[in-house]
Design brief:
Layout lengths: L2 H5 L3 H14 L3 E5 L5 H6 L5 E6 L2 H11 L5 E5 L11 E6 L11 H8 L3 E8 L2 E11 L5 E2 L7 E3 L4 E7 L7 E9 L4 E15 L2 E3 L9 E10 L4 E9 L8 E7 L1
Parallel strand pairs: 1-2, 1-4, 2-3, 4-5
Antiparallel strand pairs: 6-8, 6-9, 6-11, 7-13, 10-14, 11-12, 11-13, 14-15
The chain binds S-adenosylmethionine.
Length: 253
């Protein structure tokens, strides 16, 4: 089953995008990382003109012929960061999301295309919120939790550690000191990251099968007790890939 087939079968993800795109599309629309092209086709009845951009040549071949039938969509194959668009956009749709924006190019791409957004323009999705939890995980390696049967248990309450608004430039290199309160004795060996997508200010999409499954990151194992406070340093580069993730236990009190 192809990646794009799975994306277009994830109805929870699609419902949020459908509602926002059909309400917010007008004037000039960019659909950056158009993939299957589905988001452009939803914008088409409401927009004057759409630039749909896709850099993967295999995906582009199929999407070009699919979007060909739409008079107001121009399909462009290429890296969105290198394209010189002939006009500015009222709406930029840029959906290259992944958990904490680490492994996809959402941040470098949105940073680059923002100069084409009109002053009162809109970006869909609008941003993301990242949360972290201290966990005991069974595996010793980093993985996305894509099943409904978790292979970890939580040792303390979650914290919101970062929020991003895609209408503002974002520094892709991040460094956080996560302070966790432990609420039960156990062996702490991981941090679980969950990302919620703000499609618009009033449509929040949680993790769905194809949108940001929780990411489990192993850390050095540590026995913890109820009421401990543990500070873990987490840093990574958004758009730099999962191998940029570093963790370090900084303080136990
Ligand atoms: C998560 S898929 C989303 C597809 C589509 N937006 C949707 O919602 O069905 C992201 C797409 O962005 C494309 N992409 C990634 N980096 C890109 C870039 N720099 N320029 C253009 N397309 C890019 C990928 O090839 C992929 O098809």
């Amino acid at each position: 089953m192809s990646y794009h087939y799975n994306l277009t079968s994830d109805y929870e993800r699609l419902a949020g995008f459908y509602e926002s795109i059909t309400k917010k599309s007008e004037g000039i629309v960019f659909d950056i990382g158009t993939g299957s092209g589905i988001l452009s086709t939803w914008a088409a009845p409401y927009a004057n003109f759409i630039y749909a951009v896709e850099k993967d040549s295999i995906v582009a071949e199929k999407t070009r012929s699919y979007l060909n039938g739409f008079k107001n969509i121009s399909f462009i194959e290429g890296d969105a960061r290198e394209i010189r668009f002939p006009e500015k956009a009222d709406l930029i749709i840029c959906e290259m999301l992944d958990t904490a924006l680490i492994d996809e190019e959402q941040v470098p791409v949105i940073n680059s295309v923002l100069k084409y957004l009109k002053r009162n323009g809109t970006v869909i999705p609008q941003g993301v919120i990242n949360i972290a939890e201290p966990v005991h995980m069974e595996a010793e390696h980093l993985y996305y939790e894509e099943t409904e049967n978790p292979s970890h248990h939580t040792l303390g309450p979650l914290i919101v550690y970062s929020k991003y608004d895609f209408k503002k430039p974002i520094n892709p290199e991040v460094d956080f000191d996560l302070q966790f309160k432990i609420c039960r004795d156990g062996s702490l060996n991981g941090v679980k990251i969950t990302t919620f997508t703000l499609i618009t200010s009033n449509i929040i999409c949680g993790p769905t099968p194809m949108l940001n499954p929780p990411l489990l990151i192993p850390i050095e194992e540590l026995r913890v007790k109820k009421h401990d406070t543990i500070t873990i340093n987490l840093n990574y580069i958004m758009g730099g890939g999962l191998n940029t993730i570093r963790t370090e236990i900084k303080e136990i009190s």
